[in-house]
Amino acid sequence: MDKKLRPNSNIIERLADSLRAKAKAPAGAFVVLILLYIMSVVMITVVARSEAVITLGDMKAPLDSFAGVFSALSNICIIMIVVFYGKSGFIASLVMLLGQFPSMVTGLLIRHQPSSISGLFTNTFAIVAVIMIYINKKKVNEYHERMTKLAVTDRLTSLPNRFACGEITRRYIKRGEDFAAVSIDVNNFKSINDTMGYATGNKILIEIAERLKAVQESETFTEQAVARLSGDEFALLIRRYTSEEQVLDIIKKYESAINSVITIDGCDLYITASFGYAFYPNDAVTADALFICANAAMEEVKRAGSSRHIMRFTPNIVKEERTLELESRLRTALDSDGIYFNLQPQFDLSHRLRGFEALARMNDENGRPISPGEFIPVAEKVGLVDKIDGVVLRKSAEFFGPLLKKSGLDITLSVNVSVRHLMNNDFIDELKNVLETTGIPADHFEIEITESIMIDSVDKALRVISEVEKLGVKIAIDDFGTGYSSLSYLNKFPADLLKIDKSFIDTMNTNDSSRQYVAAIISIGHIMGFDVISEGVEDAEQLDTLKEIGCDYIQGFIWGRPLSMAEAEKVVLSQAG
Ligand code: C2E
Ligand code: MG
Ligand code: MG
């Protein structure tokens, strides 16, 4: 019989462990350090007892004066063992240090060697230092442990969160076995929240999570994992099924678990949810693409508004509407210099300007701007996005270079770079050329790449990114938190800045788990050495929370909408002066 699914708490433990794994030092080096330590201790005794004198140029040095060198070497070994090898390093160090006391005491009392006195003191201080380092390291490790667990756990429901879901999905993909990804969204949750208040909304979400967990734990023939992605969005992964019918039967169990009446604060509530599912590898081969498919099917359920609450993804669900029209508009805009940019300011928390993000703009036939949120995905699909990126990169740099020089401010220009643009063979040359011709120093220029590039094309992207890093250009990870990324990828990525996606900032003050999530991203970002910026900050309450939880920078309507060149120049000159 197939293996039963391990409980969610174990999933969380295992994921948190894997995030901390990078701290492990190689076992071989442990043995080398111990041998080096023993050798230095032996050498201290040998040279201390020696009466030989060696000649160094004009100088004659008694060999016993080198005892200090070996003593320093032995202390360095001990410190490295405690720092890098945790508890076993601590025990080994104590054993080695304590083990020397008998010979020192006999040296002092029986052989009357004065060098044993300094040895006794050095050894005692070393023991105190080892204990202090160990206690301090333990505290730091406990903190890391708490933070990594927090990073993969949804605080409201204790289910694995979006990161965890991404990690589990990636692991399934790595194993190469078939599995189904299910996107679950509670129907009309917004109106429940609006009419009954957030506290009741949270209770409902907790109850739904409990029910989903109960179904998951009752299943013995297939392997399942449930996660909460955000708000009223949940995800389910199913492995080891025998047929699509079985998958559908399983999803129906989750559906009826949610559908049965929920009594909260004396009120009977009839909740329903929409389910969309997609299969790996039939429908998509990456975690992001798979959930886009499952989501599209779930959205289709909502749109159809019928009594059927479960739908499988099919390619014709993806809307083709408007794509053709936008494609022709994009081609015309590219040919007629119709792509331009706005600059949205970024600030530190004391309202000092950090720089600007350049955002692409294009107008429709009536001169009204079309949102890049709409035309960039089309440009990606039809292979024009690198051209748009290129125009925005060049035009915004040509504007920013002279302004930077004129203002003398320490500010940065950020541009969005798509995968297609990043992977162009001449991307690095293009970047160098723009920096040279506009006179922007590399460390005043930043490229923003979305989290999904990092996940889907990490190896290819890393080669280009490390070239970018060599140029000295800064790297920001955009829309962080929305993809299904693995935190462990962040270790590989030479990024400078994490941009927390607006969706988390939107719900941060209405939803405790979102706030905890944002706080966790900030802490993890700091632990990994990144600065953190929050996107889409719109009100003072969000600003206060971000100050409180230690965010470094903000970008949002509260302090600045995307601006024209003239408006951006005004902002710069007012700060300069
Ligand atoms: P993004 O890079 O995450 O940019 C931030 C988006 O959030 C911008 O939308 C900005 O106007 C919006 N925003 C910032 N603060 C607030 C706020 O407080 N409230 C609200 N409601 N919105 C806020 P925009 O300009 O519509 O851009 C959408 C997306 O299009 C960008 O998201 C980026 O992914 C893409 N994009 C824009 N320009 C380019 C480009 O030149 N190249 C590429 N590849 N993508 C681009
Ligand atoms: Mg961006
Ligand atoms: Mg963003």
Features:
577 residues; alpha/beta; Alpha-Beta Plaits; TIM Barrel; five-stranded mixed sheet; 23 helices; disordered N terminus; binds ligand C2E; binds magnesium ion
Can you walk through the features of this model?
The protein has 577 residues and is α/β, with parallel strands linked by helices. The chain has 3 domains: 9-152, no CATH class; 162-313, Alpha-Beta Plaits (2-Layer Sandwich); 338-576, TIM Barrel (Alpha-Beta Barrel), CATH 3.20.20. 56% of the residues lie in helices and 17% in strands. The strands form 4 sheets. It has an 8-stranded mixed beta barrel with strand order 10-11-13-14-15-16-17-18, surrounded by 4 helices. Strands 4-5-3-8-9 form a 5-stranded mixed sheet, sandwiched between helices. Strands 1-2 form a two-stranded antiparallel sheet. A hairpin with a 2-residue loop joins strand 1 and strand 2 (59-62). Helix 3 runs antiparallel to helix 4, helix 8 (189-196) packs across helix 9 and helix 16 (427-438) packs parallel to helix 18. The model is unreliable at 1-7 (pLDDT under 50). Bound molecules: ligand C2E and magnesium ion (MG) (2 copies).
